[in-house]
């Protein structure tokens, strides 16, 4: 693809802008609804989503990634995959219905029944849009994808806040969660204009099913590993405790999750196109990896440093018990920012089997940590979780990179500069905050701290660490991409 670089930069910029808007919308929702709802409302919904989230992993059955990763794919293959997704979604909806009474009995909470029943419809809705989203991603149409995501999110936030204001309690969370995928699927169908044909046998999808199955099994294991603590906290500590833990976990991961979502889809699509071109593959991955960590590292360190202020401003006074959980989870989120991009490398290279084996090692490690921390409540679980992920960091990196075009030295060089810059910026910001502590209102103080952090961090990164050339190259490529896009638009309108 001759214009791959231009389309990747344009798509990456569109996704970053979209995620910036998404971050604002998500924070607006978090801040507003945290004041309208109680921890128990969040805990009730989390009791359901911690379990139904397992089913959601099977909605795409890994077939969206198979569509994107495949070098060549036919319309017959995509149509057949679409109907497989619909079948899987229907089975999952029925399974969710059967789960409703089980959850009621497990948690001894009758209100969970109808929440689970409503959630069941989402599986069919999601399944109907899987291949349409995969087509947009395969074609690197990230501007369209970003527009769909933000429109869906906006509608979801409006409905959630409106219902919460009207006193619907936890049903506001349920409605918001259901509206987003419904809007997204509707928009994806409208934009792609692709109508699936009838399913066919013998169209060569077995290798894709194998790829999708491996990816799905990997996702299942990882999901259970990273969410079992919520089930255990809900069972042994109750909805209030789970609500506190869940809000703290969501709040600390919002910035890095949004960024990984923005860059991850673009990077995976681009790397899949370059899987047979090792030098370009290596170059694209390292630049993407360095860029992602240059943003996630300082954000996570800032959140850990000012956990008290962030939780108070974002959630309000009744959530102060979430502060230690928020801070203790920050090392886990920091490590996720470092290791999650390695998933792009493995899947784009067709190393989904290795990714699965890694997941089979991570799962017992973190589950053991949960069990050790559970008697000490949510803070004990958060501490044990972060400790386990810290121990696992280096082995994970070495295992992922083995036999790939990326060496451990390459990765260390890519991350060392943003990491050192973030440490320096954090130290300077802490010292400044200590000296000027209590000088003004909380919001203004936090804004000042964030400004100092940003200025110091990027000064060190760009000029001391010598990363200005990388960002100048990105800016130049972005400008060229937009210029080319304007020329294409003029030619299109002229014709």
How many individual helices?
Answer: 19
State the separation between the terminal residues, measured CA to CA. 24 Å
- Beta fraction: under 5%
Q: Which series of helices and strands comes N to C?
A: HHHHHHHHHHHHHHHHHHH
Task: Estimate nothing, just give the exact number of structural domains.
Answer: 1
Stretches with pLDDT under 50, minimum 5 residues: 491-495
In round numbers, the mean pLDDT is 82
Radius of gyration of CA atoms, rounded to a whole number = 23 Å
How many strands appear in the DSSP assignment? 0
Helix percentage range: over 70%
Shape: globular
Write the layout of secondary structure elements.
Layout (H helix, E strand, L loop, with lengths): L3 H33 L2 H18 L6 H7 L5 H33 L4 H16 L2 H9 L3 H24 L4 H23 L13 H32 L1 H35 L4 H28 L1 H9 L7 H17 L2 H7 L3 H22 L3 H25 L6 H28 L6 H23 L3 H27 L1
Helix pairs in contact: 1-7, 1-10, 1-19, 2-4, 2-5, 2-9, 2-10, 3-6, 3-9, 4-5, 5-8, 6-8, 7-8, 9-10, 9-15, 10-11, 10-13, 10-14, 11-13, 11-17, 12-13, 13-16, 15-16, 17-18
